[in-house]
Amino acid sequence: MAETADPLDGGGVRSVKSAERTIALMEYLSAAESPRSLREVTCDLAIPRASAYALLVTLVRTGWVEHDDSGSRFRLGIRALRAGAAYVEHDDVVQRAQPVMNDLSDQLGETIHLARLDGDEIVYLATCISRHSLAVVSRPGRRLPCWVTGLGKAILAGRPWNEVDVLLPETLAARTEHTITDRAVLREQLAEISRRGTAVDEQESTLGLRCFAVPLDFGDTVNEALSCSIPIVRLDDAREKVIIDALLQARERIIR
Predict the structure, then answer these.
(1) Counting beta carbons within 10 angstroms of the beta carbon of residue 23, is it exposed (0 to 12), middle (13 to 18) or buried (19 or more)?
(2) Predicted local confidence at residue 4, as pLDDT
(3) Strand partners of residue 201
(4) Hey, which CATH number is domain 17-82, 3.30.365.10, 1.10.3720.10, 3.60.21.10, 1.10.10.10?
(5) Residue 213 bridge partners (DSSP)
(6) Residue environment code for 35-49, b if the CB has 16+ CB neighbours within 10 A, otherwise e
(7) Per-domain residue ranges of the chain
(8) Residue 3, pLDDT score
(9) How far is CA 154 from the centre of its chain?
(10) 181, CA 20 to 30 Å: which among 21, 22, 190, 241?
(11) In which region does residue 109 sit, left (phi positive, over 0), alpha (psi from -120 to 50) or beta (all else)?
(12) DSSP 147
């Protein structure tokens, strides 16, 4: 039987430069920690000033980008929030995981996260916030390097090392003094995580915080993971066992 061509594989279709520039601009603003000026946009994205200005004006008019009171610095607009919220609301994994996450949060009283691998980063999809005043929360949409988090390591451990090695950047940048930056050490830890079934972020992304994570393996390739984050001042061996057991039980409820 002849194979049917995928209409979205892009074969023989030229890219639309204005669309590519718009996407690059939106991704640039989404990653920015503060509003950006027209000059910064043109320099960082290598877009001609006139083109960048026209894109920004169009996006401001349509609500996808906003400017500050001076009109000279730009950030994502409320329509971008709407699009991101729609992605999460209609995501099958989030819909399956959210009720279980709510129960897990009620049971443990700690912050629960769901994340997905995207390139060499994890993206937080859903969060249940700890009831304690001392808590670290990663809001949906936040990105972190996959090798610095329990969530990322739980996902990577479900893949062959040659695939992981290609996915990772040449240099594993550190976020804290505890971050694993040696490939050989990371490979050994991923093998241990694969055998154990759980991953731990030992203050590797945030000082004072330990994160326990389990992979959510719905098929051949693991793309998502579930975690519980807790300040180390509230943690002891007995509490650690309770958290790991609860995560494993939650995992089974989500993937079954």
Answers:
(1) exposed
(2) 47
(3) 211
(4) 1.10.10.10
(5) 199, 227
(6) bbebebbbeebebee
(7) 17-82, 91-255
(8) 43
(9) 13
(10) 241
(11) left
(12) G
| Phi and psi at residue 221, to the nearest 5° | -115, 130
Instruction: Give a three-class secondary structure readout of the chain.
Output: CCCCCCCCCCCCCCCCHHHHHHHHHHHHHHHCCCCEEHHHHHHHHCCCHHHHHHHHHHHHHCCCEEECCCCCEEEECHHHHHHHHHHHHCCHHHHHHHHHHHHHHHHHCCEEEEEEEECCEEEEEEEECCCCCCCCCCCCCCEEEHHHCHHHHHHHCCCCHHHHHHHCCCCCCCCCCCCCCCHHHHHHHHHHHHHHCCEEEECCCCCCEEEEEEEECCCCCCCEEEEEEEEHHHCCHHHHHHHHHHHHHHHHHHHC
CATH architecture of 91-255: 2-Layer Sandwich (3.30)
Q: What is the length of the chain?
A: 256
Residue in this structure with the two tokens 């603003």, named with its chain if needed: 29
Low-confidence ranges of the chain (pLDDT < 70): 1-12, 133-138
pLDDT at 134: 60
> How deeply is 138 buried, as exposed, middle or buried, from its count of CB atoms within 10 A (0-12, 13-18, 19+)?
buried
Report the C-alpha gap between 138 and 59 in whole angstroms. Answer: 27
What six digits make up the tokens of 7? 């209409």
pLDDT value for 2 = 41
Q: How confident is the model at residue 130, as a pLDDT?
A: 82
Q: DSSP secondary-structure letter at 164? A: H
Per-residue tokens: 137: 């929360």
